[in-house]
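Pipeline run #58 for the internal structure catalog. This entry was flagged by the ingest filter as a single-chain record with no existing model, so it goes straight to prediction. Upstream metadata was stripped on purpose; only the residue string is passed forward. Reviewer on rotation: M.T. Logging verbosity set to normal.
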Amino acid sequence: MTTWRGYKARVPLRGEAARAYEAARDELGIGYLILKARVSAGLTQRELAARIGSSQPTVARWESGAQLPSVRSLTRIAEATGFHLTVGLRRGEAPGRAFLNVGVQA
């Protein structure tokens, strides 16, 4: 029996499919930033959860975009992965519409 993970390892995405996949991942926003920070720090979801006093399923929900972490949790994630948290607000192009910008810096 072949697992999805095994199949993806044997048959990586190429060309347009790889570009589309990366573009979609970038649209996940905060979850993708958490994933990138965690992987950059060489941590598993379980290890990150232990460092920040959370659970592995919670980290998985954050990374998938199913749930948004609090700013307090984002601060803990940044500290645990060696990043600095930057949170900003700016008014968007449409009057009365504000956007939240969250970034991490190594």
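catalog note: The first helix runs from residue 4 to 10.
catalog note: The chain is about 55% helix and 15% strand.
status: ready for reviewer M.T.
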